[in-house]
Amino acid sequence: MAGRIPREFIDDMIARSDIVEVIDSRVRLKKAGRNYQACCPFHNEKSPSFTVSQDKQFYHCFGCGAHGNVISFLMEYERLEFPEAVEELANYHSIEVPREQGSTPKTTPQQKQQKQDDYELMENAARFFAQQLKVHPEKQKAIDYLKSRGLSSDIVKAFGIGFAPPEWDTVLRAFGQDPHVQQQLLDLKLITENDRGKRFDFFRDRIMFPIRDKRGRVIGFGGRVLVDGGPKYLNSPETRIFHKGHELYGFYQAKQAHRNLSRVMIVEGYMDVVALAQFGIDYAVASLGTATTPEHIQMLFRTSTEIVCCYDGDRAGREAAWRALENALPYLKDGVEMKFLFLPDGEDPDTLVRKIGKDEFESRLLKDAVPLSRFFFDNLLQRHHVGSAEGKAALKTEALPLIEQIVGDNQRAMLSNELSIFLGEQNRHKLQSDVAKANQHGSMAKLDFGKLNKSEISPVRTMLRLLLDNPSLASQCQDANPRLLQHTSIAGIPLLSEVFDFCISKPQANTAQLLEQFRGHQQSNHLARLLNNEFTEQHPIKVFQDSFAKLLEWHLQSRMDELMSIARVRTLSPTEKQEFNLLVKEQK
């Protein structure tokens, strides 16, 4: 990555794009009044509840709640990360994505072309290996091996499994006649070179598993030996397009099979992923000869709410599980869960699913998978004996730094509470927790963003909704600046002030650009929920100003009440008396 994408460029991409045109090219839309409708692409339904507003450049599904702007749609529909969605939109407009100055140099057009050529060559190599499984004179031994592992022709085709012939130069002869392409083959480790400068195929006499990135591009290969001798699995080394710590085998196929990937299972081998998929368990992925990395965890938690690590039950499997747990803690937010399933001795997912079938395998996932919290303490308590003060101190010393890494407040609190029980400190822990809650009480007021009803909607929500519909309204009502109420206790003023400030700074922004500005904000979902409700206003400027006047009235009354309460216990200071008299006059 060569730096962040400038905010101005993102706003420009949204302004240039017509969300109706972008969505209609993927999901056929029908005109319905001022908006457009279709059956939602994000969940199964028979009657359309997916609505796209051309005026607001915003989509919303009244069935599943999916919503957002054109970038959000590309992220959800194409299963892209945010930068990739921006790049996709830029490609749509034939525009180069700029990058802010960062620690790495900007990608040149030549480097970008090189990557495209690399992806094309790797895709051609994958097709070549798949073709060799059909035409090579020694294909039968590869076919027999796949049959012996119980793989069907359909699953072999679905994963693009192929055969690297035993000859030393099959790939070299097929692709490497041009010196430039031969160097590219060497860079991508499809061929290798010995100390004498002789070049030959990197993969020979192996079953080939193409490794695809999350966008479906072939970036490397895993080769499984057919006969004993040499490493059982040989993976592509690191290249300019392949970084094994950032990729998972089968992740692309799992996302293709499930638009909403609620569960992902991490297994240890390519064959496990393929065999499970053949039995209908098509949400398994495998790391590429490495431990489960923090990058893997981040990628999975962005996609799914449940990760199940399925490992051997031996010492090596449990050590791998503990490393995965340690890497997951900094990304363990509320609303996601991580579990661990340890298999019986001598079994792996491939062999077990063939013995017991899909239903029983998934039943074991539900019954036998150990929650992270339980595995966490089971592991620690094997090393620290809490029957002594020294053991408790050692447990606390190791456990606390790990627990404090957890970002989810509730998950962190639950593990802290469990730790206090093992330490015999639950009463002290409860007291500390109660004190902390008491200190926060009153400062955590939040807006209630329920269904909008014009007879009940608060002034804050009215002003927010008006700004969402028409950001230029802030420039027309600059005197109604919510920053003037920043010291009030009225819920929602901080968010309203942030939205108002953005609208003042970007008076030409549309609804989609405003929402993009607040992507990732802790109350971004509340803004979207406000926008999802029907709300029309014939006189927005007057209503905006009247709503602000109402808030100002509340604030003044609140301050008067506060000063009157102070006067009951002590004499007001001259300044407070002057303020009180001004407030009384204002009320009159």
CATH class of the largest domain: Alpha Beta
Fourth CATH level, the homologous superfamily of the largest domain: DNA primase, catalytic core, N-terminal domain
* Overall morphology: globular
Average pLDDT confidence is: 85
In the predicted model, the low-confidence regions spanning at least 5 consecutive residues are 437-455
Distance between the termini: 62 Å
Largest β-sheet summary = 5 strands, antiparallel
Share of helical residues: 40-55%
Could you tell me the CATH topology label of the largest domain: DNA primase DNAg catalytic core, N-terminal domain
- The fraction of residues assigned to DSSP E strands is 5-15%
The strand order across the widest sheet is 1-2-3-4-5
